[in-house]
From TrEMBL:
GO terms for cellular component: plasma membrane. This is MFS transporter. SUPFAM superfamilies: MFS general substrate transporter. It is a multi-pass membrane protein. The lineage of its organism: Bacteria, Bacillati, Actinomycetota, Actinomycetes, Kitasatosporales. One of its GO terms (biological process) is response to antibiotic. It comes from Streptomyces humidus. The chain crosses the membrane at residues 22-45, 57-77, 89-108, 114-135, 147-169, 175-194, 223-241, 247-267, 288-309, 315-338, 350-368, 380-404, 416-437, 457-476. Its main location: membrane. It is found in: Cell membrane. Residues 23-480 form the Major facilitator superfamily (MFS) profile domain. PROSITE patterns: MFS. The keyword NAD does not apply. InterPro entries: MFS (IPR011701), MFS_dom (IPR020846), MFS_trans_sf (IPR036259).
Amino acid sequence: MHPSPAPGAPAFLRIAGTRGRWTLLATVLGSSVVLLGSTVTTVALPHIGDDLDADLAALQWTVNAYMLTLAGLILLGGSLGDRFGRRRIFVLGIIWFAVASLLCGLAPDTTTLIAARALQGVGGALLTPGSLAIIEASFHPDDRPRAIGLWSGFGGIGAALGPFLGGWLVDGPGWRWTFLLTIPPALLCVPLAMRHVPESVGRPQQPTVGAGDPAPPRRGFDLAGAALGALTLALATYALTEARSDGPVALAAAAGSIAAGAAFLLVERRSSDPMMPLSIFSSRPFTAINLITLCVYAGLGGFFFLTALQLQIVAGYSALAAGAAMLPSTVLMLLFSARSGTLAQRLGPRIPLTVGPVVCGAGMLMTARVGTHASYFADVLPALLVMGTGMVIMVAPLSVTLLASVEAADAGLASGINNAAARAAGLVSVAALPLLVGMSPDAYRSPDSFDTAFDRAMPLCAGLLAIGAAMAFTLLRRTADTPDARHGRAHGWLMEPPLVSRFAHHRALD
């Protein structure tokens, strides 16, 4: 029997109700804003470089500044919502993101653009955890799984359309509009949220396992941990990005990153309320899944960053054509991820998490055919279809296995850590790959030079996925208990796994 809200608390929302529909629309708009911020920019990079006379390192920072603050602060953003109110922090994140997007669109130089992108990531870290947590806290338990499915599905559509819309804008009014694109949905989202979304703090009203079971403790802030985690990523990214031009400083940054990382682990071990409790890694499957995630999403991050450039710089595609070229992988994910999660329940995690990365890696190697004047149907599409098939096989099983690897009360925390790990892996990959393959600062201005570096990079990306496959085969059991796939409907978008609210485990009890 489902509980009623506490006295004085607002009633649970229903999808059939007017307020429920408006609340769902507000959360979809909020998550779509972040997804657009993640996906529309890559196709614009060559035009940004030409317009602002930027070198390759500046283009890397245009991508990485956003991912850096988003990955480093996303766990803190969830805690702020729990403490001060999910709607309040969600709205603050939307406004922050919109202002930062305006600064990006008006940026007169690369320094301003990179700083504004970092601010965009802060806004994303504030609103991303809140969009799903609002659904978890506000909707009736009977409607919650369907609401989450709708939220995930519409968000996936937004992710799919991002590169296409970005390319259309770049070829039309210009690259600045790829940033301004996120402002209208943000401006629409704020009044919707303020009028229709109920406020909630702490742990939402949920069914419990048994009459005497205590509620999970509310997590507080770990400001020191968040700052040290972000500093670790920032210094590592600087060291990898600037190593070609500023060797001694980059070496010092690398040493500082190691020191900050060690301090982060020390703070997390000693904190009474850590952002990332190290005890969660006592679960061997959880640790294995995160190691696999690091390898897989590092390979994917490098692939999507370089391929969007390869299609434009070498193959001669327009920004719109390059954005549209990436659609098949996303469409396959939208259509078949739920079935893949069901299959993983029957087979266990080892087979899909071994086969999927290998298939993805094969698709990456096939992109060696994407050269000057490459044919889309003969050269590009087959590689992306193979890539998409591999992602379908591995992404949903990775998510459901992650949730099965920890106690139910830690499901949201585990999901947040995994999501941050995936973003950090993509961040480091985008910073490191050009250095590893000898890509010069002006390589993106020379088709021949970029093509040579791209051909060197794809085996490295495929190798990262092969390492992930080897880890899955070695570290995971042949079979494992996994959550019901009906409750794991949030498919993984292209550049990060789905983020599950810290209260999402209660869906299985509804």
